[in-house]
């Protein structure tokens, strides 16, 4: 990002992007030493979205594509510099082999 902040509403965008991943790939974003991995699953037993703390500095977020529908979510994923860190994420299924993940990490000033 440049020297000028980007805002979503009143929140400052910390990191954002769009990636294309294969079925067996996932996205990992490192924000000041905290790693957030976003993966997909196709499992009738899982909720639409789940989070799992893998270690003190790593969280795995799984988006379940089984139920279909709108796969857009926004929720708190952690705290950085004493402020909540939110993630807005959208998963778009364009083919049976690839997924498009659009993500924005943001914090209120």
Q: Any overview of this molecule?
A:
- The chain is mainly β and 109 residues long.
- It has one domain (7-107).
- The protein has no helices and 9 strands.
- The strands form 2 sheets. The chain has a 5-stranded antiparallel β-sheet with strand order 1-2-9-8-7, with no helix packed on it.
- Strand 3 and strand 4 (34-41) form a beta hairpin.
- It starts with 6 loop residues before the first strand and ends with a strand.
Q: Return the string of H and E elements.
A: EEEEEEEEE
Q: What proportion of the residues is helical, as a percent range?
A: under 10%
Q: Sum up the overall morphology in one term.
A: globular
Q: Count the helices. How many?
A: 0
Uncertain segments of ≥5 residues (pLDDT<50)? none
Average residue-wise pLDDT: 93
Could you give the count of β-strands?
9
* Major β-sheet profile: 5 strands, antiparallel
Query: Helices and strands: which structural class?
Result: mainly beta
> What is the topology, as strand order, of the major beta sheet?
1-2-9-8-7
Strand content: over 45%
Domains, number:
1
Distance, first to last CA: 17 Å
Radius of gyration: 14 Å
